[in-house]
TrEMBL record:
Residues 564-642 form the AMP-binding enzyme C-terminal domain. Belongs to the ATP-dependent AMP-binding enzyme family. PANTHER family: ACETYL-COENZYME A SYNTHETASE, ACETYL-COENZYME A SYNTHETASE, CYTOPLASMIC. Keywords: ATP-binding, Ligase, Lipid metabolism, Nucleotide-binding. One of its GO terms (molecular function) is propionate-CoA ligase activity. Its EC number is 6.2.1.1. The lineage of its organism: Eukaryota, Metazoa, Chordata, Craniata, Vertebrata. This is Acetyl-coenzyme A synthetase. Gene3D superfamilies: 3.30.300.30, N-terminal domain of ligase-like. GO terms for cellular component: cytoplasm. GO terms for biological process: acetyl-CoA biosynthetic process from acetate; lipid metabolic process. It comes from Oryzias melastigma. Monomer. Interacts with TFEB. Interacts with the 'Thr-172' phosphorylated form of PRKAA2. Interacts with CREBBP. InterPro entries: Ac_CoA_lig (IPR011904), ACAS_N (IPR032387), AMP-bd_C (IPR025110), AMP-bd_C_sf (IPR045851), AMP-binding_CS (IPR020845), AMP-dep_synth/lig_dom (IPR000873), ANL_N_sf (IPR042099). It is an enzyme of class 6 (ligase).
Length: 682
């Protein structure tokens, strides 16, 4: 499956020399290790596991599983019988065993330039222990779910690791999600407690986070699910004397519009609680397959699914992928620009880097604030060596040309990474030539919330790169391409991307709904994990992701289900029916193009359009705000009444060649929609 020889022409390498120190210095070494990881996973992962602390050893094989629904329940188990604690491995082990206590774990760079702090491994351990004691004193126990809705601050990492230390299961909700989305997620996982903050700035925009959290808690109460406790971090309203350590921001950030409603029956102040807590906190030893966290991702039916990851496999997999894909070295300064509210932030800001004792940048702000040079300014400021971002950010910055990049030196950079969506070759070349000055390999990492870590990816010193291809599988991962009838295709081919066996970090279930887990990922092709992505394999064996095969859209690297947006639209009293499709967008990858059929007697207006956009923003969050809304008196349907999205996609893109429309019930609808399409380009 891995080619014997990789092509020598039309491929790229970084011209910088990583090989001398690299963990995987050649393609041959990659191949050798890959075969070992497949033929003898016990030995391959056993060697990895030796670096970690285990309270008790596993009692069975490294991995056991069933991927075939026709043979019984789907399950994946890794290192059964072993017990450990990830927080202990990320912090105590690094401080005490590896003597990294004085190493900086995070350089925190605030939204506003100049607002900065840092935390060492020793300080992080102390802060996590204190907060873990706070959680225990609030009655949080092993297995309880805790919801976290916070900006990108060090305390977010503290909150998540404090949960992990006491065996509680964190469910982080991205702080850009709406109150409604937060409520839905709190209720689905039956969280005991919410941790949030007063507010934060995104660029020059103030987000009154506590206000949104309160709204969510009220909605939970209205639905019969009262949350008793909400811990609130004063991030914007913190006074200097409340600083918990010398690295805290120097002065109160000025924000006259900050609203921090306070309900003394529910709300507790983070700072007051930790000031009384002890620095000592015995970790809760967890079994390998105990749940570690829940993270919600869009489901194609509209209801988000709570992806569950478990302790040991996720720890080993994120640690190993981080180490090898970014070729981590002790003097690195690593920076992943994702938000911790997404899986990229979970695996590659918190778990993978800390497991390796890495020093990272934790950035609160935006790539364009105060200007489009901010990223490169930060790279120079901290001497960032490994940099990981999303194609949408690259395209956004590319629009401003090379000058804002070249104002800064970027000499420290060694490896560049991308994640979240296919990277178009133009953006790839710009990243490679301008940002990395042909010196830095680009690791185009394909993976999903569900996969826990990278599954298709180059290794920086080993894999010849082709712009736009995620290249080859990571260790332990066995991909295949299937046709519609479920047959495995050999050689150059295109079809459904599936995986034939588990790797340690793959998800274990959908929280509270194992049946949904089986039916989404395993039913279509028994015996395989189905990614939902299309994929092409070229003559050299390289894998190229071609995009989603289901009703999911990828807007700025975030997956959204069309059904989720449609249901937010039809909840508006004026809307009878809605259909949402993706339209290619030069920066966001895809934009949301919505067709709405109004109820009889309702007229379409600008005011209504603004209301509908607001409605979607409030139901889901700003990331789902429609780019276009078209009044559609009728929608193209088959004779059996199914909306023909394929036709709507053509209308959104103004492509007149509709292909086969013989099943269309009324073709005049299509002409009318073409005439009235939203043609402005965004
Ligand atoms: C897409 C993000 C092409 C893909 C880590 C996948 C990619 C979905 C890439 C998962 C990539 C992610 N090339 N497509 N390098 N990385 N995707 O769960 O469609 O937010 O299924 O996880 O993003 O998105 P999720």
């Amino acid at each position: 499956m891995i080619p014997d020889n990789v092509p020598e022409e039309n491929v790229f390498y970084g011209s910088g020399d990583l090989k001398k120190e690299s963990h995987v210095p050649s393609f041959d070494k990659y191949k050798e290790l890959y075969l070992k990881s497949i033929d003898n996973p016990d030995e391959f992962w056993g060697a990895v596991a030796k670096d970690f602390f285990w309270k008790s050893k596993p009692t069975g094989p490294f991995l056991s599983y069933n991927f075939d629904v026709t043979k019984g329940e789907i399950f994946i188990k890794c290192m059964e019988g072993a017990s450990t604690n990830i927080c202990y491995n990320l912090l105590d082990r690094n401080v005490h065993e590896r003597k990294l206590g004085d190493r900086v774990a995070f350089y925190w760079e605030g939204n506003e330039p100049g607002d900065e702090s840092s935390v060492t491994y020793r300080e992080l351990l102390q802060r996590v222990c204190r907060f873990a004691n706070v959680l225990r004193s609030q009655g949080v126990k092993k297995g309880d779910r805790v919801s976290i809705y916070m900006p990108m601050v060090i305390e977010l990492v503290v909150a998540m690791l404090a949960c992990v230390r006491i065996g509680a299961v964190h469910s982080i909700v991205f702080a850009g999600f709406s109150a409604e989305s937060l409520c839905e997620r709190i209720m689905d996982s039956q969280c005991l407690l919410l941790i949030t903050a007063d507010g934060f700035y995104r660029g020059d925009k103030l987000i009154n986070l506590k206000h949104l959290a309160d709204e969510a808690l009220q909605k939970c109460r209205d639905k019969g699910f009262p949350i008793k406790r909400c811990i609130v971090l004063k991030h914007l309203s913190k006074e200097p004397e409340e600083s918990v350590d010398s690295h805290s921001p120097p002065a109160k950030r000025s924000c006259p519009d900050l609203q921090v409603p306070w309900n003394p029956e529910v709300d507790l102040c983070w700072h007051a609680l930790i000031s009384e807590a002890s620095d000592e906190c015995e970790p809760e030893w967890c079994n390998s397959e105990d749940p570690l966290f829940i993270l919600y991702t869009s489901g194609s039916t509209g209801k988000p699914k709570g992806v569950v990851h478990t302790v040991s496999g996720y720890m080993l997999y994120t640690a190993t992928t981080f180490k090898l894909v970014f070729d981590h070295q002790p003097d690195d300064v690593y920076w992943c620009t994702a938000d911790i509210g997404w899986i990229t932030g979970h695996s590659y800001i918190t778990y993978g880097p800390l497991a390796n004792g890495a020093t990272s940048v934790l950035f609160e702000g935006l790539p364009t604030y105060p200007d489009v040079s901010r990223m490169w300014e930060i790279v120079d400021k901290y001497h960032v060596t490994k940099f990981y971002t999303a194609p949408t950010a690259i395209r956004l910055l590319m629009k401003s040309g090379s000058e804002p990049v070249q104002k800064f030196k970027r000499e420290s950079l060694k490896v560049l990474g991308t994640v979240g969506e296919p990277i178009n070759p133009e953006a790839w070349h710009w990243y490679y030539n301008v940002v990395g000055e042909k010196r830095c390999p680009i690791v185009d990492t394909f993976w999903q919330t569900e996969t826990g870590g990278h599954v298709l990816t180059p290794l920086p010193a080993a894999t010849p790169m082709k712009p736009g291809s995620a290249t080859f599988p990571f260790f332990g991962v066995v991909p295949a391409i299937l046709n519609e009838s479920g047959e495995e295709l050999e050689g150059p081919s295109e079809g459904y991307l599936v995986f034939k066996q588990p790797w340690p970090g793959v998800m274990r279930t959908v929280y509270g709904n194992h049946q949904r887990f089986e039916s989404i990922y395993f039913k279509k092709f028994p015996g395989y994990y189905v990614t939902g992505d299309g994929c092409r394999r070229d003559k050299d064996g390289y894998y190229w992701i071609t995009g989603r095969m289901d009703d999911m859209l990828n807007v700025s690297g975030h997956l959204l289900s069309t059904a989720e947006v449609e249901s937010a639209l039809v909840e508006h009293r004026a809307v009878a029916e809605a259909a949402v499709v993706g339209r290619p967008h030069p920066i966001k990858g895809e934009s949301l193009y919505c067709f709405v059929t109004l109820k009889d007697g309702v007229g379409y207006s600008q005011t209504l359009e603004a209301e509908l956009k607001k409605q979607v923003r409030e139901k889901i969050g700003a990331i789902a705000t429609p780019d276009y809304i078209q009044n559609a008196p009728g929608l193209p349907k088959t004779r059996s009444g199914k909306i023909m999205r394929r036709v709507l996609r053509k209308i959104a893109c103004n492509e007149k060649d509709l292909g086969d429309t013989s099943t269309l019930a009324d073709s005049s609808v299509v002409d009318e929609l073409f005439q009235n399409r939203c043609c402005a380009s965004v």
